[in-house]
Design a protein that fits this description.
Layout lengths: L1 H10 L1 H19 L1 E2 L5 H12 L25 H6 L5 H30 L2 H10 L19 H17 L3 H11 L4 H17 L5 H24 L10 H8 L14 H21 L7 H26 L4 H5 L6 H22 L4 H13 L4 H12 L6 H20 L9 E2 L1 H8 L5
Parallel strand pairs: 1-2
Helix pairs in contact: 1-2, 1-6, 2-5, 5-6, 5-7, 6-15, 6-16, 7-8, 7-9, 8-9, 8-10, 9-10, 9-13, 12-15, 12-17, 13-15, 15-16, 16-17, 16-18, 17-18
Length: 436
């Protein structure tokens, strides 16, 4: 049934996009949607200050908005100026933007899977998997619970990767240049991946891609580059005391890969699990085109190198600029490619081993539903180790269901998972209908 459904979606654009919409709705409800929390606790006041400079006079925290190098929130200034005292319209516009960005991300991920593997079943399996949140390095899932400049930038960054894979590097660099004005950090990761690939394929045209692409990128990125290069924060010295203070708070997961805390080490194990999904899947299930296989391998090595630099800045010598860039977030691309590759591994097995439906069913469920990438690897290992025993199905099922229940038992009491839509305006309307 999965195979026929995947082929049907590949052949019928309307039904395919309805699937993207359904996946979008399911993702938002499963992960939850929030306004004004997390990173928005700073961005919304910054936005109000841009819209009305008279607000928050002499507030040192608000002045930090000038060190947030992005023009993303500036686009919402006219919206806030319509009614500075009422954020209801802003809430609905941001929700609509979040829905659109999530939908486009599913579309781009589907296209990226087809580009890599030319397998509708692999594209479907990865799409189903991304509905659920999966944890990677730093503990962030692919989809988040509010619209931010980094969530807005993600599908465009993946679009640049698509252009690069399809042999259009100049357009890829041009898109990254424009995107640099939205979210510097995401673009830096993709630039690092492109740069390492160009260096490792120097003789086969890598130098040409850099020579043609970098000038185009610099032109597009000029507004934020000029802003950043004229900022006094660029000249800030290395300050171990600053890093010590920041890392002692709840942001330690953005810096440390290893720490004397269980949750930090579990998050790192989850990140290693995304790399494990890639390495397990790529051996029997390479990309459809050899040049794509080499390119993605170079991308993965770029991510590993970035993570190694992050480890050095924490364990050896803190470099403020690198720590401020939160380079551990590069692990998000390990999560993306790990899940795309493992979907192809599963698709090949579903097509080649229809008689093994029980094994594949539990493995696919562990892959798609478990928040921890280590769980499908554990289930796969148990299935291989117990291949001669009929009760391996019960072991696989128990492992997956037990780990899933344990994850929920930890996440729900700690408030780490809050499904549904949480809009202040909607809550106020329910409690006080007169607001309508």
């Amino acid at each position: 049934m999965l195979i026929s459904f995947a082929n049907r979606l590949a052949a019928r654009p309307l039904e395919r996009h309805l699937f993207f919409l359904a996946a979008t709705a399911a993702t938002i409800l499963v992960i939850g949607y929030h306004f004004g929390t997390f990173d928005q606790f700073a961005h919304i006041p910054y936005l109000k200050k841009y819209a009305n400079p008279a607000l928050y006079p002499n507030d040192g925290f608000i002045e930090l908005r000038n060190e947030s190098y992005s023009y993303f929130w500036r686009a919402f200034v006219p919206l806030v100026q319509l009614d500075p005292l009422d954020t209801r319209l802003l809430q609905w516009v941001l929700l609509a933007g979040h829905v659109l960005v999530t939908y486009v991300t599913f579309w781009v991920l589907w296209t990226l899977s087809l580009t890599l593997f030319n397998s509708p079943l692999a594209a479907l399996l990865s799409g189903l998997a991304f509905i659920m949140p999966h944890l990677g390095f730093a503990g962030f899932p692919l989809f988040e619970f509010s619209l931010l400049n980094r969530t807005f930038a993600l599908p465009a960054a993946l679009g640049a990767v698509l252009l690069y894979l399809r042999g259009r590097p100049v357009w890829a660099f041009a898109l990254l240049g424009l995107l640099f004005n939205i979210h510097v950090i995401t673009v830096n990761f993709v630039l690092a991946m492109f740069g390492l690939d160009a260096l490792l394929s120097w003789r086969s045209g890598g130098w040409r891609r850099l020579a043609l692409g970098l000038p185009v990128f610099l032109v597009g990125a000029a507004p934020v580059l000029a802003w950043r290069l004229t900022s006094p924060a660029l000249a800030a010295p290395v300050n171990p005391a600053w890093f010590d203070a920041v890392s002692r708070g709840f942001l330690l997961n953005l810096f440390a890969l290893v720490a004397p805390y269980v949750h930090i080490n579990m998050i790192t194990l989850a990140g290693l699990g995304t790399l494990g999904l890639y390495w397990v899947a790529r051996r029997p299930a390479p990309a459809a085109a050899p040049e794509h296989e080499r390119t993605i391998a170079h991308f993965i090595w770029a991510v590993i190198l970035i993570l190694a630099v992050q480890a050095i800045t924490v364990l050896v010598y803190p470099i403020d600029l690198l720590n401020q860039l939160q380079i551990i977030r590069a692990g998000e691309f390990a999560l993306i490619f790990g899940y795309l590759y493992f979907a192809h591994y599963l698709a090949r097995r579903w097509l080649a081993e229809p008689e093994a439906s029980a094994d594949l069913g539990w493995l696919t469920a562990a892959y798609a539903l478990s928040p921890l990438p280590l769980v499908p690897l554990l289930v796969l290992g148990l299935q291989r180790g117990l291949a001669a025993f009929s009760w391996r199905h019960a072991v696989a099922a128990g492992t997956f269901l037990g780990m899933f229940a344990l994850t929920l038992a930890i996440a729900v009491p700690l408030g780490l998972w809050a499904p549904g839509a949480h809009l202040p305006w909607l809550v106020c309307l329910i409690t006080d209908p007169a607001m309508s």
